[in-house]
Amino acid sequence: xxxxxxxxxxxxxxxxxxxxxxxxxxxxxxxxxxxxxxxxxxxxxxxxxxxxxxxxxxxxxxxxxxxxxxxxxxxxxxxxxxxxxxxxxxxxxxxxxxxxxxxxxxxxxxxxxxxxxxxxxxxxxxxxxxxxxxxxxxxxxxxxxx
Length: 146
Fold this sequence. Notes:
Layout: E1 12-13, H1 22-37, E2 57-65, E3 70-78, E4 87-90, H2 92-97, E5 100-111, E6 116-125
Antiparallel strand pairs: 1-5, 2-3, 2-6, 3-4, 5-6
């Protein structure tokens, strides 16, 4: 896995706020340094089928140059049923297929030395009946034209 942050120490929180989903963000931030030490070469061995497992939430990490172009969007799903001790990287397509929706909960981080900005967003499984599913603005979709 390639590093999420540009610095080993990590960037500083930008306009920090305490949110109702704070434990999810804290669990992900605790997991990240250990995951980066045990990083792989980017292979996706052990790919998961999200619609069949107990993952309750996912974190989107958006990395960009401060006031500049987007560098990457990465998605990490809780791999232990929501306890937050293990995360697995997934694709945006996996997130859509498993019916995750973006919540109104985010954290921002900024690295002044590398001029980078990071946004963390929470996605949660939508409990609606999949038979009656319709396109929703809260779902991640790179192909929706609004």
